[in-house]
TrEMBL record:
Record field: transmembrane: none
Cofactor(s) it depends on: Zn(2+)
Annotated keywords: Metal-binding, Zinc
Organism name: Neobacillus paridis
UniProt-listed Gene3D superfamilies: Carbonic anhydrase
Enzymatic class: lyase
InterPro entries cross-referenced by the UniProt entry: Carbonic_anhydrase (IPR001765), Carbonic_anhydrase_sf (IPR036874)
Chain segments annotated as coiled-coil in the UniProt record: none
This enzyme's EC code(s): 4.2.1.1
Name the UniProt record assigns to this protein: carbonic anhydrase
Pfam families noted in UniProt: Pro_CA (PF00484)
Catalytic function, reaction form: hydrogencarbonate + H(+) = CO2 + H2O
Similarity comment text for this entry: Belongs to the beta-class carbonic anhydrase family.
Length: 190
């Protein structure tokens, strides 16, 4: 695809979408109907599968996505988004939903660094980050077990000093082919 072609296609489609008032069938409020916030992976297979497998329609849940459905820092943007959903947007439950066959599973920083260098990131830049105290190898490392990763993210959320103790935090793993959910952590039992 030629440079700029994708953006042009998106903008042309969007213009027709708005002109035809197709947005009307998606109208809802900023508050989730089912009072939940979901942290899940950005995997393309989950875009439509995950909501269908959970019986979610437009407006039912706040959905936060990142690589691996990870809470990697207790005071990063993922945790901030979860707290905003709970305190400002009426979410009463949190679901962490990772998936089998995730690209973050077994991901090693060396592979990412090699691709970065192929795209022009210099050793000097990487050294500057290291001298600044950033452990790039740790930051880019994935996880070895999806179940352990989900449990770890649930623990960070559940035990966060700003998270209300009455908010259940559940952990699940979805099959990206069938949509089958495996329960890892039942937040009602904690």
């Amino acid at each position: 695809m030629k440079n700029g072609t994708m953006l042009q296609e998106i903008l042309a489609y969007n213009q027709k979408f708005v002109e035809n008032r197709e947005y009307e069938k998606y109208e809802t409020t900023k508050y989730p109907n089912k009072k939940m916030v979901i942290l899940t992976c950005m995997d393309t297979r989950l875009l439509e599968l995950l909501p269908k497998a959970l019986n979610l329609g437009n407006g039912d849940a706040k959905v936060i996505k990142n690589a691996g459905a990870l809470v990697s820092h207790p005071f990063g943007s993922i945790m901030r988004s979860i707290l905003i959903a709970v305190y400002e947007l009426q979410a009463k439950e949190v679901l962490v939903i990772a998936h089998h066959d995730c690209g973050m599973s077994g991901l090693k920083a060396e592979s990412v660094l090699t691709h970065m260098k192929e795209q022009g990131i210099t050793e000097e830049t990487l050294n500057t980050l290291a001298f600044s105290g950033i452990d790039i190898n740790h930051w880019l490392h994935g996880f070895d077990s999806v179940n352990d990763s989900v449990s770890h993210s649930v623990d960070i959320i559940k035990n966060h000093p700003l998270m209300p103790k009455n908010v259940p935090v559940h952990g699940l793993v979805i099959d990206p082919k069938t949509g089958k959910l495996d329960l890892i952590v039942n937040g009602y039992q904690d």
